[in-house]
Write a structure and sequence with these properties.
Rossmann fold, alpha/beta, two-stranded parallel sheet, 271 residues, globular
Amino acid sequence: MKQISILGCGWLGFPLAKKLIENGNSVNGSTTSEHKLSILDNVGINPFLITVKSESISENIADFLAQSEILIIDIPPKLRAANPDSERKLFVEKIENLIPFIEKSKIKKVLFVSSTSVYGDDNSKITEESIPNPETDSGKQLLLAENLLLKNKNFETTILRFGGLIGEDRHPIKFLSGKENIENPDAPVNLIHQNDCIEIIEAIINQSKWNEVLNAVAPFHPTRENYYTQKAIEMNLPLPKFSSQQSNIKKVISSEKIETVLDYKFRMNNY
């Protein structure tokens, strides 16, 4: 049995925690919503109300990390302020604020949930050897946070860069359905299903694959127009209408490394 702390029991962290518990692990899980504490507790997660800010952190952070050897950080950067420039470094500062508490704890392994947005819109096949070139503020923050964790010698860090997240209750077609003049019709999709996310994280923990940077995207890259049109038909939704203007975005994220290092096979029936 492993003692694991998950910072951020949201869309991914909550079902991940449940799966880890089902497999015999003990899990501390954090939420920023007081009403979710009972929801976590009801499924066997040790619940903690934790808020990480750039200038402060909840007093119970030490208890949240106590006894755990593994920390999973799954708190995506959010830029929703009226002035995004003022928010640009907030996520990085949150990680900077968190690191001293990790150093003081028994945590020896950190898994940081990142995103393939750190690569920008390069028109090529992207591997872990590709030089990151983020174009969005969130991508820039994630890359800075990755580097902060990777260079720290007090613990081992694996960076897991997910593509676009989908699941039974989350799919881009629900947003695109019925819309018109959607850009980049011929750009390839780079998606990963929630089930694959969870199984990959489990594999990293069970196989002790630390000090790694891993891309996690299903090896399935139809064009946006073909894929989302088909999904709309399957879900009986109004068809999206794409622009006739072709794009120059041809970015394909390779997961060959994760398939090799973890001997992992994606659940292609989810896509």
